[in-house]
Design a protein that fits this description.
Bound molecules: pyridoxal-5'-phosphate
Number of domains: 2
Distance between the termini: 48 Å
Number of strands: 12
Helix content: 25-40%
Shape: globular
C-alpha cells in the first residue's frame, strides 16, 4: 500500500465515522485546491461526472436553446449529449488529416450567427493545435469548452490539455488516469464561470442563494469519492508514466506486426490513454470487434465507437458527412488500458493481436 493510499484509508475511516453529517465539503474543497495548483489554473470545480462537467460548463457560458455548438464527429456520445441537454444544437465538424484536432476550414464553414461555442474533444488523449484553435474561435467570437475527459496529463506546447480554452472538463470515472469511481471537474481561469458552476452543481443553494434565472442540479461530488480522487491525484505523475509505459510496451511488442502502425505519440505530449494503432487491414471494424470477442478491449469493438454524426441517436443533427473522422475511427485500434493491466496481460493482448492480424485474411 502506498503512503497516499494509507492516508486515503485513514481519511475514509474518519469521514465514515462522522457520516451522515451536515452538508460540508472539506475533502472536495481540498481536492479542488490541489487540482488548481497541479494544473496552474485559478479555479477547479469538482462535480459528479465528466458529463456533468460538460453540461455545467455550457450552462455557465449561457449556452441554451437557439444556440449552436461546434463539436468534432471524432468524439464520444458523452461529448454531445450535454449540448443537447443544455437545449442547444450540436453541429459536427470533421477532423484534421492526422485525426488529432478539428479541421479548421470545416469549422469556419459551419459557423453561423447562432454558433456560441466550440467544444474540442481530446479523444484518446490526443489534441490538435490549441493555439490555432484559439485563434479560430476568437476570430468567430466563440467560447472554447474543452472535453479533456480522456486527456488528463496530455500536454501540447508546454500547456496541459483542458487549460487552453475558457473552461476544460475532465472525468474521474474509473479507467481515467486519475479516477475515483465516478466524478469529474472543471478547470477555468474565469471567475464568472467558476462561480456559476459552483452554484449550478448544487441547485443554487446557499451560499449561492441569489435569485437565479435558471434552476440548478445535483452535480455534487460525494466526499468519499473526493478522498479517492485526492489519493490518485497525489500519484498523478506515476499513473501517467505507467499508462504511457503500458502504451509503449504494446507498441514495442507489435512493432513488426504487418497491418498495424503504432499511433500513440508520447513525443507530441499524448498521455497514452489508449494504445493506438492505425490499421491497414481489410474490414478494420470487423477486426476490432473480433479482437474484443477474444478479450482485447478496444474503442470500436468493445464500445462501438462510431463517428458522432453516424450515430442513430444523433442522426437528426447530421449534416454533410464527416468522412475523415469516420475513416480515422474505423481504422484505429485503440486498446483500452487501465492501471491494473499487468505486463503479462499486455503481453497477452500483443500475442492475440499479432496472431489475429497475421491470419486476418482467413477470417473473411
Ligand atoms: C471524451 C469523453 N467525454 C466525456 C465523458 C463523460 O465522462 P463521465 O463518464 O465521467 O460522465 C467521457 C467518459 O468516458 C469521455 O471519455
Amino acid at each position: 500500500m502506498t503512503a497516499a493510499d494509507g492516508t486515503a484509508v485513514e481519511d475514509l475511516s474518519r469521514l465514515l465515522a462522522q457520516m451522515p453529517r451536515p452538508a460540508g465539503a472539506e475533502y472536495v474543497a481540498a481536492l479542488e485546491d490541489e487540482l488548481a495548483t497541479r494544473f496552474g489554473v485559478q479555479h477547479a470545480v469538482a462535480v459528479s461526472s465528466g458529463t456533468a462537467a460538460l453540461h455545467t460548463a455550457l450552462l455557465s457560458l449561457s449556452v441554451g436553446p437557439g444556440d449552436e455548438v461546434l463539436v468534432p464527429a471524432l468524439s464520444v456520445v458523452m461529448s454531445v449529449a450535454p449540448i443537447i441537454q443544455a437545449g442547444a444544437r450540436p453541429v459536427f465538424v470533421d477532423c484534421d488529416r492526422q485525426g488529432r484536432g478539428l479541421d479548421l476550414d470545416d469549422l469556419a464553414a459551419k459557423v453561423t450567427g447562432a454558433t456560441k461555442a466550440v467544444l474540442p474533444v481530446h479523444l484518446w488523449g490526443r489534441q490538435g493545435d490549441p493555439v490555432r484553435l484559439a485563434q479560430a474561435a476568437a476570430a468567430h467570437g466563440l467560447a472554447v469548452v474543452e472535453d479533456a475527459c480522456q486527456a488528463q496529463g496530455s500536454r501540447t506546447g508546454g500547456r496541459a490539455a483542458g487549460t487552453n480554452g475558457d473552461v476544460g472538463c475532465f472525468s474521474l470515472k474509473d479507467g481515467k488516469i486519475v479516477w475515483c469511481g465516478e466524478g469529474g471537474y472543471l478547470l477555468t481561469d474565469r471567475d464568472d464561470i467558476a462561480g456559476r458552476a459552483r452554484a449550478l452543481r448544487a441547485h443554487h443553494l446557499p451560499p449561492y442563494d441569489g435569485q437565479p434565472e435558471t434552476v440548478g442540479y445535483n452535480y455534487r461530488l460525494a466526499e468519499p469519492l473526493a478522498i479517492i480522487a485526492r489519493s490518485n491525484l497525489a500519484r498523478f505523475d506515476d499513473l501517467l508514466d505507467h499508462r504511457r509505459g503500458q502504451a509503449q510496451q504494446l507498441a514495442g511488442l507489435l512493432a513488426a506486426t504487418p497491418g498495424l502502425k503504432a499511433a500513440t505519440d508520447a513525443a507530441a505530449g499524448d498521455n497514452g490513454y489508449s494504445a493506438l494503432f492505425r490499421l491497414e487491414l481489410e474490414r478494420p471494424r470487423a477486426f476490432c470487434e473480433h479482437l474484443a470477442r477474444l478479450g482485447v478491449p478496444n474503442s470500436v469493438g468493445t464500445f462501438g465507437l462510431t463517428a458522432a454524426d453516424r450515430r442513430p441517436a444523433l442522426a437528426r443533427y447530421a449534416g454533410s458527412p464527416c468522412s475523415q473522422a469516420e475513416m480515422v475511427i474505423d481504422r484505429t485500434l485503440a486498446v483500452v488500458l487501465t492501471d491494473h493491466d499487468t505486463e503479462e496481460r499486455i503481453n497477452g493482448y500483443a500475442q492475440t493481436i499479432s496472431r489475429e492480424a497475421s491470419t486476418w485474411d482467413t477470417h473473411r
